[in-house]
Predict the 3D structure of the following.
Amino acid sequence: MEHEVMEFDVLIVGAGPAGLASACRLKQLDPDLNVCVVEKGSEVGAHILSGAVIDPKALHELFPDWQEMGAPLTTAADQDEIVLLKDKSSSVKIPNWMAPKTMHNKGNYIASLGNLARWLAEQAENMGVEIFPGFTAADLAYDENGRVQGVITGDMGIGSDNMPKDSYMPGMALHAKFTIFAEGCRGHLGKQLISKFDLDKDRDPQHYGIGLKELWDIDPQKHKPGLVIHGSGWPLEGDTSGGFFLYHTDNNQVAVGMIIDLNYSNPWISPFEEFQQLKHHPVLSQYLEGGKRVSYGARAIAKGGFNSLPKMQFPGGVLIGCDAGTLNFSRIKGTHTAMKSGMIAAEAIFEALSNDRIEAEHFEQMYKDSWLYRELFSSRNFGPALHKFGRWLGGAFNTVDQNLFGGKLPVTLHDRVEDHAKLKQANESKTIFYPKPDGKLSFDKLSSVYLSNTNHEEDQPCHLQLSKEELPLTVNIPLYEEPAQRYCPAGVYEVTEGDTGKRLQINGQNCLHCKTCDIKDPCQNIQWLPPEGGGGPNYPNM
Amino acid sequence: MKILVAVKRVIDYNAKVRVKADNTDVDLSNTKMAINPFCEIAVEEAVRLKEAGTASEIVVASVGPKSCQEQIRAALALGADRGIQIETEDSPESLNVAKLLAKVVEEEQPELIIMGKQAIDSDNNQTGQMLAALLGMPQATFASEVSIADGKAQVTREVDGGLQTLAINLPAIVTTDLRLNEPRYAALPNIMKAKRKPLDVKTPADLGVELKQHTQLLKVTEPAERNAGILVSSVDELIEKLKNEAKVI
């Protein structure tokens, strides 16, 4: 099908910190560049979810006077606590010297990443960047030589019967000299690019976690702005690894959340229920009790780090931020690295444009010469150590490696099993029964999804597609008790029982765009595709 | 024919409304805002009249702080020609909006004024009627069908008992109901073009209107929470509970 074409110098897919930092940097280097950003969320920030404790390093390089300019990084993280939860009521504090240095947060800020993205978008628009929220980049556009030429935006107004409705508006071809992909973790175009250009050749597979987060209004008496609490342990059991955070932000609010590694083996695990249970621990409930939950959301995290990072430059563009996997898991931080990768991409593209070269192949060298490379390299063993040696020995290894050797121990640990392949069958695993939510500290999925302001046009094709329709019935339900109904944090997947037996029902309109199903399905049978533009969560202050 | 459309910036209909912890107002910080859905229908109707050759120019006006220019731009992207923002601090009450719009009407002399029947934030359903009274113009509210011919508008209204069809002389005011039309999506090139369409900013002083406060917001609270229901196993148990627990029979 022919699409109407619009041409730009540089097209950026995704208005998150990476994409917007890239856009700003391009305009700083050449104000005449024609830069366009497309964003699937209904507005910038609508789909952004992060803890977040942010290292302002990259922001400072982009806008040295960011504080005077009013960037929404105002709460300094001035107190770190690291806690190990031993069981449902007891805990131990880890003294600072015993924790890996990467876990210290002096100089960082507790902030809402969504609000930082909103602020970056304002700066970009003031510099003349065209930002289009509500438009999905549905497909890749290649030229006759197989070089990426841009993207095709999603059609609007297609009914659930796949037929155009009265409101039908066909997608457009957005072409550019260079396209930057900044979709975030497990972007559906990024995934296609990695496979098409073999960008992950000789790399470890990407590893993922699912992050769940809530925002609470708490009793002002209990509020300690600047306090950062990290921890792990209970309620996670066995080989399930992960951790939690509780950040005291401003306005008498705390951000509380949990990250669970998606290489867990027990299909009975529900990350959502683990998180709900966690909040009952006194370390967290002491702050939450009497408070009110105001927002909820979830997002997958690419945490494989250095060893899993694919080649980022390819014919026609660059893959940046979490779309590639630049997050530094040893610091549980990805904002500064994502922004830096975007800024390097902008510099490489500017360099190519100024020298009339059609590829930005200097990107790889510029990346290797940057602090981003050095930072990711020195943390390369953190995740694999935890996966290989477990929480205790792995944690000790990390403390020694990071604090005594600055990440320079001359070994590189690898973790070569894909996360979905770790899942065991239901009958080989311990069944888990989660307690009922109390409606005060813990809640059910549906009332949680309600707080994410998620909405999709109802009359549209389901955006979660099964490559093989029969697999839920032949494999997922009989062997794994369909894990999707538990790992999905939004209740999208339901196994229902009717006259004709069991079937998998997919409630696509609940989808939080976290991408966990695309990652964790044991058969890799679920394809996350973008729904109609503007659909999905509408996160405020997340 | 020139059409004036008034639009209001409101909290997006998908966003959950949160009450500020001190109960002084609704918390709108970093919440998704949008064009009021009824106003969007008004814009769509004006654009359809222009596409049909009935209208020649569409002017969009909004009253509010600078941020409401976003909603004016959204209306321009749907097909309106130029915008007027009347700069005020907060969202003023209906009578003030009507007085400001009355001055815009005097300046612009449109033959048709289309606006939403109400805004989904305050749900007042007043501005259109007040504007008609201030201008002494005919009004047709809650429109589900509009046709223009021979200096008259024929408007089908949604009323409690069914549909009522009115013929009114132009210039007139029409307020839109949900079934009037389904607004289109703004196309990407049109959003770009909208950024370059003219947008004037005026103050109430420019229009010679002094804003007066007639109402005062005392307190905003969330609706009382409903208790969860219970399943009963028999009719007898139901009757017993209605009698002794709920005490309604």
Remarks:
- The longest helix of chain B spans residues 37-51.
- The mean pLDDT of chain B is 94.
- The helical segments of chain B are 37-51, 69-78, 94-108, 127-135, 188-194, 235-244.
